[in-house]
Amino acid sequence: MEEKRLNPKKNTLFCIISVVILVILLFPLFWTLITSFKTEKEIFQIPPTWYPHVLNTKSYAAQIETGDFNMFKSFFNSFVISMGAMLISVVLAVPASYAIARYRFVGRKAMLLGFLVTQMLPVSVLLTPMFIMFRNLKMYNTWGASILADATIGIPFSVLILKNYFASIPKALEEAAYIDGCTRMSAFMRILVPVAKPGVIVCAIFSFLYAWGDLAYGMTFILDQEKRPITAGIFNFMGQYGTKWSYLTAFAIVAIIPVTLIFIFMQKYIISGMTNGAVKG
Amino acid sequence: MKRVKNFFRYDNAGLFFILPAFLYMMFFVGYPIISNIILSFQNVSVRNLVNGQKKFIGFANYSEIFQDAVFRKAMGNTLLFTVACLLFQFLIGFVLALLFNKNFTFAKTIRGLTMIPWMMPMTVTALMFKFMFSTDVGIINYILRSSHLISENIEWLTTPGTAMIAVVAANVWIGIPFNTILISTGLTTIPQELYESAAVDGANAWQRLVKITLPLLRPTIESVLVLGFIYTFKVYDLVYVMTEGGPVNSTHLLSTYSYKLSFDMFQYSKGASVANVLFLILLLVGMLYLKITMRGEED
After folding, report:
1. What confidence score (pLDDT) does residue A281 get?
2. Which domains, from first to last, does chain A contain?
3. What is the rounded radius of gyration, in angstroms, for the C-alpha atoms of chain A?
4. Which residues of chain A make contact with B118, given a CB cutoff of 8 A?
5. CA spacing 20 to 30 A to B71: which of A163, B214, B224, B273?
């Protein structure tokens, strides 16, 4: 259902309008990037400069040196936590979504509803009980606490997205595998998961992103700054040095590097995740 | 033994695949939900959190929070914040979706790029907007001053009233992509021939929007608004990083107030009751959403 092409004049007009809109929408990011390369003095200059007149890379360099401005460690913590949460989410959600798509087992509807409801859950409901639980499990103040907590966001999202992928795979494919002597498990691992791979990638990306963006869990379950994720590091720094904008903006830019990379290389998966996850969610 | 085997033979074999995820969620989400409900009926503070006698005090926490002026303020703020965000992000998202559904050269690429704000960690978004809304270095004050809309810098984040505008602006920025993409997807399901025949019948653009687009888009619009409500009503990090609920509680939401009660004032039971009120509202709206999406779908 290809829509008819616009005439050249209208085409140019729409292109210009949409570029202007894009520039306005992404201005906060541009402004943060520019500011991170300015000196403190230039940031406070009026009128503001639209590009750094004196290039200042100190705010970035300080992040890998020792001291209060070291974000490298936090970045690494965030990475470990997000990868952990992503792995748990994918490993648990892939078979679960296959079950929902293919089997009419006892309690299926109730479980599906359970996954839907957890998506509506505000973090504040879970914070105190999880806090007590992780203390009892001797996991308080470890990466593990954050990983386990972050996976609870990724799992329901992934299950709901992936069930649509599995449901769209023809049953005949699975039946052919059984005839060829596959067990349920081997048919699932060798035939179905590879076919649903785009969906699995969507889930991995979103589980990673949810964990990467988390602040509440990282801040509440991890006490030591050395073990905290980058979001908590930034928040902490804002409390201590609220107006050191050159450092703050540089931290912000470093914190969005993975997000930007994911966006550049996996854009189509993101759009798919946003639409499938929400509409069918 | 044979009966057990038969039970798992066909559809119930699915249980093997789903149980790991389900048990995980029961342990790390189901159990906390229950214990948060129990917590809200007890008197837990920092003294008896980990060990120590916990006393059941019935609905005392709930009746206390409903008398609490800050809680009432937070409730009002949450509603105001949610309605304001939904209104702006929906309207802007709708216009953008209409624009990007025109078949011009950059449409797909630019629509893709406008998704970026949605992916940002909330902490980073909060930082960026805090910077832009700051009094002396803020670019927003500079733009307003140089276009002569204001003569003196506004203290956006330290004045009650304007602080709410700042947090709403930041959240709208995050919400626009979500609205754009969902409405955009909805628009593609409307058959093009309807517009063509309406145009033949002499309907102008406005009439086509009101008579064709809006009625056919109704299910999408309903989903977008209800989902937007759920996501916005529970926003926490953004506001906590930008204002921590201040100044003078003017931006406290139920989520931030609950956090403050539990982890700043160590009144865990009271914080739990506020969180439960928040959850109950979300659950009711969520049920409404399920009713909408499940309409005409048997599973």
Report:
1. 35
2. 8-61 (no CATH), 72-279 (1.10.3720.10)
3. 23
4. 274
5. B224
Pick from A235-244, A271-280, B75-84: least confident: A271-280
Are A11 and B105 an interchain contact pair (Cβ–Cβ within 8 Å)? yes
Predicted confidence band of residue B156 (pLDDT cuts 50, 70, 90): very high
- pLDDT value, residue B3: 67
Who contacts B7 (Cβ-Cβ below 8 Å, separation ≥6)? none
- What's the DSSP call for residue B11? G
- Region of B58 (left: φ > 0; alpha: ψ -120 to 50; beta: rest) is left
- In a mutational test of the A interface, the residue from B22, B47, B235, B242 whose CB has the highest number of chain A CBs within 10 Å is B22
Q: How is residue A136 annotated by DSSP? A: H
Residue A69's region, left for phi above 0, alpha for psi from -120 to 50, else beta, is alpha
Q: How many whole angstroms from its chain centre is CA B22?
A: 25
Residues of chain B contacting A159 with CB distance shorter than 8 Å: 21
Q: Is the predicted pLDDT of residue B296 greater than 60, yes or no?
A: no
Backbone angles phi, psi at B9, to 5 degrees: -70, -50
pLDDT at A178 exceeding the cut of 50? yes
H or E element: which one contains B162? Answer: helix B162-188
Q: How much is the ipTM here?
A: 0.91
Strands (E) located in chain A: none
The whole-angstrom separation of Cα A34 and Cα A43 is 10
Cβ count near B100 (within 10 Å): 25
The residue with tokens 């000196």 is A39
- Residue B3's SS3 state is helix
- Look up residue A24 and give its two tokens: 């306005």
**Res B295: pLDDT:** 63
Write a three-state SS string for B91-155: HHHHHHHHHHCCCCCCHHHHHHHCCHHHHCCHHHHHHHHHHHCCCCCCHHHHHHHHCCCCCCCCC
Q: Percent of chain A at pLDDT above 90?
A: 52
Q: CA nearest A278 in B: which residue?
A: B227
Q: Please name each of the domains of chain B with its CATH number.
A: 65-294 (1.10.3720.10)
pLDDT of residue A2: 46
3-class secondary-structure state, position B42: strand
Residues B119, B117: Cα–Cα separation, whole Å: 5
Which residues from chain B sit within 8 angstroms of residue A25, using beta carbons?
114, 117, 173, 176
Report the SS3 class of residue B56.
strand
The answer for residues whose C-beta is within 8 angstroms of residue B247's C-beta and 6 or more apart is B157, B158, B159, B160, B163
In this predicted model, what pLDDT tens digit does every residue of A136-147 receive, in sequence order?
A: 999 999 999 999
- In chain A, residues 188-227 whose CB comes closer than 8 Å to chain B: 188, 209, 212-216, 220
Is residue B149 scored above 60 in pLDDT? yes
Question: B36 and A125 in contact by Cβ < 8 A?
Answer: yes
Q: How far is B254 from chain A (nearest CA, A)?
A: 9
CA distance A279 to B287: 15
The token duo for B180 is 């754009």
Count CA atoms closer than 13 A to B205's CA, side-chain side: 1
Q: Which chain A residue lies closest to B229 (C-alpha atoms)?
A: A120
